[in-house]
Amino acid sequence: MLNLAIIGTSWITKSFVDAALSTKEYKLVAVYSRSLATASQFAEEYKLGKDACYTSIDEMCKDAKVQVVYIASPNSLHFEQAKQVLSHGKHAIVEKPCCSNTLEFIQLERIAQQSYKETGAMCIEAFRHIQEKNFKVLKDSLPKLGKIYMSLLPFASFSSRYTDILEGRLAAPVFSADFSGGCLLDTGVYPISFAIRLWGKPKSQQYFPYMIPQTGTDGGGTILLVYDWGIANIVTSKIFTSKATVEIYGEKGTLRANAITDLDSIEFVGNAKGTQAEQLAGPKESFNLAEEATEFARIIRDNDIQAAADLWQVSSDVMDVMTDLRKQNGIVFAAER
Fold first, then answer.
1. CATH code at 112?
2. Does 136 share its domain with 280?
3. Is residue 202 part of a domain?
4. Which interval of the chain is the signal sequence (predicted)?
5. Is the pLDDT of residue 218 over 90?
6. Calpha distance 191→193 (Å, rounded)
């Protein structure tokens, strides 16, 4: 069992902790927040005392009990906090995106390699959807299509925080350039990593965003990932909602999934008229993040450096693509000024 510490106390942190505990692979031992009261409130929910609460990441990481740290702070903080965690020889599980741009990623990669060499500590970016069992079913089903022509990968959900902007209130971190916010790094990262895990890094990419004038960040748009076989067409947004399904079109038929994340329905429909849909999805875990938590624990426990390297390559490719898409559209974060 891995002794888990957390940085951040948001809903995603609670979701990860609940999922991690459900796997019986983790034990929560420490909570970090800038506010001791906030850390204490979170800790109490899991029956931890005040001695498990910290307002210093360095002090928390000096706790000998801590083995792995889950980082779920605003995007712009991930890079520095991951470096801090690794410097103490602790494994780092970093919510996506692990960095603001490729330059930060290259630095973190160098630090992670040195940390592993010296202490065995790994750095893993938490793309939870590509760890779902049904994502792997979808990936394994691609040969059913024969030659692939095109794919549609929609992932769009209206954010209540956008209402704040429309009504003239201060932008939340998720939309703020100061915190490396915007749709691309918060929502678009899901279908981009989905595509890269299926087909690798695209030959080229292009983004047509809806920009938010008040923040200088993107609210969503259309992304084209160009591959030798064709185009992965992504529609992503935090300023409108789409209920469209994932579809991948091939010469022999179509693969259709209910969504980019939380896959519970996958079917293959042959191109021949009257063909019945073949249902492919298996049962889904009760906790949405349980599958990633289980796999990350296995990688750490088994010291599976090859699996860690495979995931890190996905992270590298995703970061390169997103950095280029922002550059195309003049989206600049405070971390880059």
1. 3.40.50.720
2. yes
3. yes
4. none
5. yes
6. 5
Which DSSP string do the residues of 98-123 spell out, in sequence order? SSSSHHHHHHHHHHHHHHHHHH---E
SS3 266: strand
Specify the residue for token string 């990593």: 193
Alpha carbon distance 124, 311 (integer Å): 7
337 lies in some domain: no
Residues 183 and 101 in one domain: no
Q: What's the CA gap between 188 and 183, in Å, rounded?
A: 6
- Rounded CA-CA distance 237/204 in Å is 21
- Domains held by the chain: number: 2
Q: Clarify whether residues 105 and 134 are in a common domain.
A: no
Report CA Rg, the chain: 20
Question: Backbone phi, then psi, for 220, in 5-degree steps?
Answer: 150, -175
Confidence band of 286 (pLDDT split at 50, 70, 90): confident
On whether the CB atoms of residues 152 and 231 are closer than 8 A, the answer is no
Residues 160 and 86 in one domain: no
Triad 154, 211, 202: Cα angle to 5°: 45
